[in-house]
């Protein structure tokens, strides 16, 4: 009963959080940001009227009338004639129903799905899973292994080296390392005509681009395309690994160090149990929940944390890059895409956190009370 | 141990201050962190002293940087790869003479320049710092004779002095005279590409149909003709001659000719301010929430912890981007927003500590003895959480610095002062990656990393102090 109640409270908190984030974003867009939309409508109306004046036979009052009519109609279509509260609720409703609408600037995203926001987001998902999710899992795997070894040799020279590497990796902006990698392995290698060099960005060569955006599974059927994808993947993945392995190593080291000071570990040592058994049974098992939590909680955080800018640097077609186009890459912020991505990421985040809560409770029965 | 001695002793977490500093400096991490911290503070103070108080205006005034080369690598690059890039030269020791005849004043200026580089000076500026001269009814003119190392000579001008800064190489007379020189001497027409400066071609010769550097000593002889006898003579003090190099200063220049060394220096105080201010707000909110939750317990605790969970889960970075775009936020708005959404984790730590301390036996005894909450807070709890608070302060700085650098790199939340993130934004905008401007990319990122690493190392070194478990390996 206690468990069910705990989970119910968590679920409620998370749903409330989702709605608050959604409300804040929708409200910001319906209120202050609607000016952007209004300007856009004015511009559109002006250009239509300009065309009419060039080709039609209207006098100035007629033109003014037509312009006003266009503006009113467009404002109605976008719901701008409604008060901000209604518009906020309207945006929220559409988001929750996955009725995400159309991008204002479909050409910025290569006209995927005719500019349908859902299709744009879906086309970017494989890239994000490849670079972010796979990148995090791989670096967590490597980092935890390093951190574990480091903690077991506490105070040794290799342990100190791991500490300094972790400090450096935590301090270097991932996207900056990405720029430096591109500068060295893409620009300079190409400049000295090296036989091996890496592309300056993109997720895949242009000839496979369309296939990738529409049906990534098909790309994996063509061996050359897979090689091409890997060639594009090399620099971003190395960047992600270099930065994230350090953080994981330090984290795992701290967790293991904390646990290895516990009485039950000392007792196991005094009992003379073999080292491997102590590590596996008395250190790793209690360390598992906090390490797992961290892996889980990092995935959604990172998609819109450091990876947003990293994807932009590498022009890597993932959610972060799309988000970046929607916000700073298009002439004015592409509001439908911005809202949809913020909502989608928060939703993803909340689902993952809820799964994590369940796993966590399963791993650590003490938390059930 | 007598009671009296015990009472006088000041202890935090059961350690005296000297024990704490001993623990901090016992590890090599602590020593390295301390050295780096001192360097960081020293450079920041140096930056505040060296930069003029109106540096933001200076930085944003394109005219101020007009004489500097654009996209120039640092000058010290020549000492590594040999004399390749001509450095920026401000001609100081020129010979100055003045004569008058027939109602005209002749001012003669001569100097030599030793040319030994592969990439010549790209422009010559003649600066006359006296508005009376270039606003005369009939402005003076200057004509220049260049004696080249191969014995040939080039005559340039006359060019009117009708501005404070004369850009010699782009004036049509000079371009056509340099073209003429090449046509007569090497039979090559139109050597100066349309729209570019003729100055580099002063330092070239023709070899196998290609322009090649002609190294040696060049002698410049300038004559200013001032068409009046009494007033407005071009004075020695008003006159400056600058050879624009292809390498510049300690850290090179950007697309505007900004001296990047100054831009990088300006980043120190602003980055420290950004990091410390946001960490300070985070910790203050965390202390208040943590103490109230931990001390009162019950419903207050429950609701404050729900709030804390909420704040921890907020996707701060995308929200920061969205709001920075929508509301045109400055860097300080971004700092405050970031602080307001980042205190969750710290508040949880402080609450957990207070809960632990509160359940200790001596607190219960104090409560039984009739001590008030404030008394317990002041005498038992505060001394114990202060080191943690400092630790949290230190750990919260790098996150803020890195986040603000990222958002500046996106071209958002800018400031009048150049920040390292903004330098990187412009580097990316103006083709650092496609043209290989490493001096514009490497230093700002390294400095962001340096400041973050200093705080991370400090936090790491103080971990054994605040977490006794890590003390005995």
From TrEMBL, chain A:
<keyword id="KW-0472">Membrane</keyword>
<feature type="transmembrane region" description="Helical">
    <location>
        <begin position="229"/>
        <end position="251"/>
    </location>
</feature>
<protein>
    <submittedName>
        <fullName>Peptide ABC transporter permease</fullName>
    </submittedName>
</protein>
<dbReference type="InterPro" id="IPR035906">
    <property type="entry name" value="MetI-like_sf"/>
</dbReference>
<dbReference type="InterPro" id="IPR000515">
    <property type="entry name" value="MetI-like"/>
</dbReference>
<dbReference type="GO" id="GO:0005886">
    <property type="term" value="C:plasma membrane"/>
</dbReference>
<comment type="similarity">
    <text>Belongs to the binding-protein-dependent transport system permease family.</text>
</comment>
<feature type="transmembrane region" description="Helical">
    <location>
        <begin position="12"/>
        <end position="33"/>
    </location>
</feature>
<keyword id="KW-0812">Transmembrane</keyword>
<keyword id="KW-0813">Transport</keyword>
<keyword id="KW-1003">Cell membrane</keyword>
<feature type="transmembrane region" description="Helical">
    <location>
        <begin position="117"/>
        <end position="142"/>
    </location>
</feature>
<feature type="transmembrane region" description="Helical">
    <location>
        <begin position="337"/>
        <end position="363"/>
    </location>
</feature>
<dbReference type="Pfam" id="PF00528">
    <property type="entry name" value="BPD_transp_1"/>
</dbReference>
<feature type="domain" description="ABC transmembrane type-1">
    <location>
        <begin position="125"/>
        <end position="360"/>
    </location>
</feature>
<feature type="transmembrane region" description="Helical">
    <location>
        <begin position="162"/>
        <end position="189"/>
    </location>
</feature>
<dbReference type="GO" id="GO:0055085">
    <property type="term" value="P:transmembrane transport"/>
</dbReference>
<keyword id="KW-1133">Transmembrane helix</keyword>
<feature type="transmembrane region" description="Helical">
    <location>
        <begin position="291"/>
        <end position="317"/>
    </location>
</feature>
